[in-house]
Amino acid sequence: MKISWLLAGSLFCHGLWAQELTLTTGEYPPYCSETLKYQGLIPHVVSEAFKSEGVSVKFQFLPWKRAFRLSEEGVVDGTVHWYESSERRKTHLYSDPILSETYVWFYLKSAPLEWRGYQDLADRKLAAVSGYTYNADFFAAIAQVPLQVQFVTRLRQSFDLLLSGRADLTLENIDVGYYSLRQFYPVSTVDLFATHSKPVMKVEGHLLISRKRANADELIKTFNRGLAKLKASGQLEKMLLESRSGLYEP
């Protein structure tokens, strides 16, 4: 009972007593999706981190630009999950990294890839998706190596190009890539694909709390404490493995 009253007093002092936060996000399976169990890995992690600190969360799924704008304007408490950006930091406080996303080359097992740097890809045909946030090194290599890149409008088109032999490899987030393959093709086709063990790039996703919230700093500290608990207990790693195993999928 003493511990319960201490926790209650702490939450009351920090303005978090009986609080429910509203966060926006968008469709980005397997990380975020209304169709997935727990609404995806990231909402599950965020909910559990806050829950461990006595705060509940509900999510609104919106187009990404609108999701950010509502948070920026203070209509909602925050938004998830976003990469590093000096512009976004002007209007939001950033949490500790929730997850490190790894981008790798996808290719067919029948056409193995040896890759140490972009120069090794000079004779390869690449597929990439227009509008994706590839890093500066990738775009520089397109001009400097140069790389043979065919840009498409949808991820499935990239994989279709590999299967048809019109491209040799495509760059994709390893979790998004394998999730998408499972949605697009039968298991026998998914098994034709492989990924290279050397990452092309890594990016970290964060929870953002609007600077218009009076208690924004305390909310970030509260979330970071809960996130640290998930990491220390091994629960976050367990959730990631379950997501990668397809256990969040309907």
TrEMBL record:
Q: Kindly give the SUPFAM superfamilies that the UniProt entry links to this protein.
A: Periplasmic binding protein-like II
**Keywords recorded for this protein, A-Z:** Signal
All copies of domain Solute-binding protein family 3/N-terminal, residue ranges: 24-239
What stretch or stretches form a coiled coil here? none
For this protein, the record's InterPro entries field holds:
Solute-binding_3/MltF_N
Q: Reply yes or no: does the keyword Signal apply.
A: yes
The signal peptide annotation in the UniProt record is: 1-18
Q: Does the keyword Signal apply?
A: yes
Per the record, the similarity remark reads:
Belongs to the bacterial solute-binding protein 3 family.
Protein name as annotated: Solute-binding protein family 3/N-terminal domain-containing protein
